[in-house]
Amino acid sequence: MKTRTSREADLSAQIAGAIRDAIVDGTLIVDERLPSEAELAEQFDVSRPTVREALKRLAAQSLIRTARGAFGGAFVRRLSYEEAYGQHITTATLLLGMNDVSFETACEARYALERACAPIATARRDPDHLATMRAEIHRQAQPGLSDESFCDSDVTFHRALVDAAGNPVLSYQLAGAVEAMQPLMNMITFTARSREEIVGLHTRITDALEARDAGAAETALHALEAYTLTLGRGVMAARASNGAD
Q: Could you tell me which residues are beta bridge partners of residue 65?
């Protein structure tokens, strides 16, 4: 039986969506070979170039891989957490930027997620995680460090905290919170913040992880959240005041 698609819509996108749904729901499993271009063209009642475009869309999403030769074709690809990070971060950044998420909402979500990760990180952190966090603290304390580099270091520090939990699902979920929310929050607060204050709070967090003290880690994250909120509110109030003048 042929599967017909609407001629009014983008056929290649519809075909890619149908195949993607089959991969997501398990109808097509990892390493399974997809039907040939000719077979897909027959199934969807479209031309082979349309099928080819659909396959390109799926390859761009890292959902399929292609191989040449007698045993070649298109195969369902195993997607790793690391490969998915970039797409997740991009989506989170777009959602925050396009939907006018308030600073306080982003701050609340980001620190709630990170605090949930902290107890696991204190139990599982290894010397490499601590070394990364200490190195970023040292970097942040350098007087000649640019604002952009300080923000990059801030993200790396919190990424190490998340990764210390040793849970790839948490790392994936928090990638958007840390690597999408943190830069946007830094853009708002960088003119008002005290680097010395942040270095001090980062040191408290790292000391807590090294001591495997989950309570101290959560307390330090609460303090960092409160400080960030205070900065954000101050910046917003100043902007509102300047706008009213």
A: 75
